[in-house]
Amino acid sequence: MKKSIEKAEILLEALPFIKQFFDKTIVVKYGGNAMVSEELKEDFARDIVLMKYVGINPIIVHGGGPQIGETLEALGIKSKFFEGQRITDKQTIDVVEMVLGGKVNKEIVALINGHGGSAVGITGKDGDLILAKRHRKMKVSPETDRPEIMDLGLVGEITQVNPKILETLDNNDFIPVIAPIGKGENKETLNINADFVASAIASALKAEKLILMTNTQGVRGKDNSLISALTRKKVASLIKSKVIRDGMLPKVNSCLEALKAGVAKTHIIDGTIKHSLLLEIFTEKGIGTQIVDK
Ligand SMILES: Nc1ncnc2c1ncn2[C@@H]1O[C@H](COP(=O)(O)OP(=O)(O)OP(=O)(O)O)[C@@H](O)[C@H]1O
Ligand SMILES: [Mg+2]
To answer: Which of 114, 198, 236, 252 is deepest in the core (most CB within 10 A)?
Structure first.
């Protein structure tokens, strides 16, 4: 009996959060690096179904870096990165679209539906959800020490989000699962970092929360320990000192952009911890790093 009462009390602890997020949108970026075991993937799917059944509208944007890397390797195509973004040529984009839009996307859809949810998998091309242009980055040339344009190839920078398809899905209680692919100015397929896609969608929908699930505790500081809250100013200094680098760069920038656009809260959490999503949403303390706009 005592155990049953304890269980009821645990449920009640979630009540303030269930009230707070009822009928609100939470955008979850499910990092390719967080999809490490079958068990964790099943747990993630169940967490999403639970969110939906308590009245939250979860929207999932997924990554798939490691999964793309594996397929490219199997095909003998080399992967190259610049500041956490994959340099993408024509051959690579075909693999990116197949792996993200096909394999990874449909796996997540099937997992959610297997736990009683109604997920629908789309890419940024569906309903023109994500329009983009080719992203050109500046870098300092090691030879001349001058800034030059770094061409990342078929990598997109988001220019427009058309959320109508998401509203249509939400009106019919579907859970959208989005692969981070956009349509370019010449209808070409563009590979977009999923953190940016999640941020742009959260911004367009003025989501209540943006949660980026990855494979580290959150943002780590100079001494390698977890930083539980980070301001805009602190982010800038950690980027400058290269403590925040590679795959963490798009994450912190995505959070800051979403905050600027009116998303209430942004978090970077460890998706390799069982039920990390529920811990973040339904507990007072939360987990990981919260990025705040100060
Ligand atoms: N200061 C930092 N704190 C924590 N992780 C950091 C930091 N700086 C860089 N990183 C790196 O960022 C990585 C997370 O980004 P990464 O792009 O690899 O994963 P992901 O975004 O979850 O997956 P995907 O890109 O497939 O969606 C960490 O594994 C870590 O190596
Ligand atoms: Mg990444």
So the answer is: 198
